C-alpha cells in the first residue's frame, strides 16, 4: 500500500482541479503550499496528515490530507480524501 502520492495527482483525485495538468500548472506557479511552505514541483509527495493550501477563486483554501485515493471518483468519494480546514481571503498581489 502506498504511503504517499504526487501532489498534482492528489489534487486532481480530490476534484479541486478539472485536470491533473491544471493542478500541476498551479503548483509550478507557486500557488500551492504544503504544511505552510511553498511547493514548486507537482511530483512533491503528500501523505495523510499533511496540510495543503491552494487558490480557490478569491480565497485561499486549506485542507488536511486524510487518505491518498487511487482514482478520480465521484464527489462523495473525493470528499473522503480530505478534511476541509476553511477558506481565507487570498492576499492582494
Automatic annotation (TrEMBL):
Domain of life of the organism encoding this protein: Bacteria
GO MF: RNA binding
Alphabetical list of SMART domains matching this protein: S4 (SM00363)
Xref: InterPro entries: S4_RNA-bd (IPR002942), S4_RNA-bd_sf (IPR036986)
Alphabetic keyword roster: RNA-binding, Stress response
SUPFAM superfamilies: Alpha-L RNA-binding motif
One Pfam match: S4
Domain spans labelled RNA-binding S4: 5-67
Protein's name according to its UniProt entry: Ribosome-associated heat shock protein implicated in the recycling of the 50S subunit
Source species of the chain: Paramagnetospirillum magneticum (strain ATCC 700264 / AMB-1)
Amino acid at each position: 500500500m502506498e504511503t504517499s502520492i504526487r501532489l498534482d495527482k492528489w489534487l486532481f483525485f480530490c476534484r479541486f482541479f478539472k485536470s491533473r495538468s491544471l493542478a500541476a500548472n498551479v503548483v509550478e506557479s507557486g500557488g500551492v503550499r504544503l504544511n505552510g511552505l511553498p511547493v514548486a514541483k507537482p511530483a512533491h509527495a503528500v501523505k495523510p496528515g499533511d496540510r495543503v493550501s491552494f487558490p480557490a477563486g478569491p480565497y485561499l483554501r486549506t485542507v488536511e490530507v486524510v487518505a491518498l485515493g487511487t482514482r478520480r471518483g465521484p464527489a462523495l468519494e473525493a470528499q473522503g480524501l480530505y478534511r476541509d480546514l476553511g477558506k481565507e481571503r487570498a492576499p492582494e498581489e
